[in-house]
Q: What sequence folds into this?
């Protein structure tokens, strides 16, 4: 450095507020070459920091857990609705063997009575062989139904939305086949409805807990990251930046971190659901796979489900930004 | 420019550390603020920088009663004040150039409009070769000069410096004093808080002496 700060060789301090166009210092012939191109300025809030990365990890993990919970709740509720509609669109007639009556004739008479009923689109009487097939898991193969008083089943498929007078239908069928019983699965549907309702309710409860845990953990992680940035807030304050300017910079920074975490967590969950159908396929045929398939169907999430997961990820990012804003204003009040 | 009337300051429920301060800082003036350690020099600088509000009394800055100002108005007033703190407060993720240019950036100015001015000043304070260096690799003296350059780059009306020569050798201390003197000659009112008698003896200026919370002025 030079010894004389006022005027050395051709370099002099030349300050004037009256003429703001004049330079603050005049270096004369020592003027450095100023690059023509603008510099790439560092962001006011550093992008890569340990606290920032930790926040992204927390947001990603919590978004993943929340997405898995939401997706599972949606799957269970959709499968339950599907189950109910499938079972609710069928009527089963059971014709029991009775001494002195020809069961084949009773089955045909009951099927004809059903066919005449408006609102029934398909009648499927199970043959003797098909009935044997149904009993195979319990009684083994090579069964002769002639030796056993096995009831026969007729499945009637209803037109969607058709309303049947079940009492009249039951009376008509029983007139033709006294040993027949007509079951519209009402009791079954009620049980299914209460079971699936309880499952969905439990899922929603877990989802609410996961979302609350997400809000709390993301808020605290954001506060931690903000605390690490306190020196930046103080310096911006010292150089005359207004609260709005500082808040704007930090809001954008934390929204970006939140979106990054949300994209990673939500994206991983979406990929998981996307591949779940193929994963379920690997287990099909196994007892566990079949049970899951019976409960959850094909494991495939509808497009609206993916949209819900995306909205959830964006919401978690917004919570991150909101928490940073709250912490920032508390920090600014503290500095003041 | 600055007017204090019967200003008192206490932290929380503690004793009053500044008592009945009444003084003025005229435009274009130069003064040293001195006193023993713990006398309240930094607290007085914080009052002047509007980082603290007085417990009692009137503080008038640039013709405005600060008790009537909102946050945005205070931020605008701060743009007219440059401050050099003891711990420099440089941002470690920004280069020396970016740190010095920060006041312009906060003002929303385009980089091309201030680039030359910042580079010239960095060259002037001897940091021409270090403008792309990050603060963690700068020496104490270099950080000091970068902090001073940041404080003066926007040509403040009032410059506050807290022990600006505390981290440099006597020769560099004299150089920095000359920079403040030149800045003052160009119209900036300067207040330098120091307990370095040697530094104060180098320039005949008004002395504000804090002792036991009270201010004594030696013209």
A:
């Amino acid at each position: 450095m030079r010894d004389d700060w006022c005027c050395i060789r051709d370099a002099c301090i030349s300050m004037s507020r009256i003429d703001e166009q004049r330079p603050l210092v005049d270096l004369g012939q020592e003027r450095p070459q100023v690059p023509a191109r603008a510099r790439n300025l560092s962001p006011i809030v550093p992008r890569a920091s340990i606290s920032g990365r930790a926040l992204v990890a927390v947001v990603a993990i919590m978004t993943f857990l929340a997405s898995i919970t939401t997706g599972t709740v949606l799957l269970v509720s959709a499968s339950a609705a599907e189950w109910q509609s499938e079972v609710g669109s069928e009527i089963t007639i059971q014709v029991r063997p009775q001494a002195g009556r020809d069961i084949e004739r009773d089955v045909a008479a009951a099927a004809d009575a059903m066919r005449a009923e408006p609102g029934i689109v398909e009648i499927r009487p199970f043959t003797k062989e098909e009935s044997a097939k149904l009993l195979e898991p319990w009684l083994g193969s090579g069964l002769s139904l002639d030796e056993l008083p096995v009831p026969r089943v007729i499945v009637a498929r209803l037109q969607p939305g058709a309303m049947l007078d079940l009492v009249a239908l039951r009376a008509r069928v029983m007139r033709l086949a006294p040993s027949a019983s007509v079951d519209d699965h009402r009791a079954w549907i009620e049980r299914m409805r209460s079971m699936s309702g309880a499952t969905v309710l439990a899922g929603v409860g877990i989802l609410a807990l996961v979302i609350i845990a997400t809000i709390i953990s993301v808020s605290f992680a954001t506060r931690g990251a903000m605390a690490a940035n306190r020196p930046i807030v103080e310096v911006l304050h010292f150089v005359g930046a207004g609260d709005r300017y500082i808040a704007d910079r930090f809001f954008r920074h934390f929204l970006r971190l939140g979106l990054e975490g949300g994209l990673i967590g939500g994206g991983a969950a979406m990929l998981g659901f996307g591949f779940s159908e193929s994963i379920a396929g690997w287990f099909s045929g196994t007892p566990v796979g079949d049970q899951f398939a019976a409960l959850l169907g094909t494991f495939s999430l509808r497009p609206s489900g993916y949209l819900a997961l995306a909205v959830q990820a964006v919401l978690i990012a917004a919570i991150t930004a909101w928490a940073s804003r709250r912490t920032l204003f508390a920090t600014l009040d503290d500095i003041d | 420019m600055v007017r204090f009337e019967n200003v008192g300051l206490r932290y929380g429920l503690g004793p009053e550390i500044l008592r009945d301060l009444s003084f003025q800082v005229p435009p274009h003036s130069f003064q040293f603020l001195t006193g023993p350690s713990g006398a309240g020099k930094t607290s007085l600088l914080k009052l002047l920088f509007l980082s603290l509000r007085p417990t009692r009394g009137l503080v008038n800055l640039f013709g405005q009663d600060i008790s009537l100002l909102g946050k945005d108005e205070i931020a605008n007033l701060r743009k007219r004040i440059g401050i050099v703190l003891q711990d420099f407060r440089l941002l470690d993720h920004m280069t020396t150039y970016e740190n010095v240019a920060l006041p312009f950036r906060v003002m929303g100015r385009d980089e091309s409009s201030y680039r030359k001015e910042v580079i010239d000043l960095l060259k002037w304070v001897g940091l021409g070769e270090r403008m792309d260096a990050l603060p963690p690799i700068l020496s104490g003296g270099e950080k000091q000069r970068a902090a001073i350059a940041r404080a003066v780059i926007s040509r403040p009306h009032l410059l506050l410096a807290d022990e600006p020569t505390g981290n440099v050798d006597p020769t560099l201390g004299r150089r920095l004093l000359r920079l403040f003197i030149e800045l003052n000659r160009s119209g900036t009112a300067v207040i330098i808080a120091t307990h370095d008698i040697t530094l104060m003896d180098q320039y005949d200026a008004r002395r504000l002496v804090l002792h036991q919370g009270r201010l004594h002025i030696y013209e």
Observations:
- The radius of gyration of chain A is 37 Å.
- Chain A has a mean pLDDT of 77.
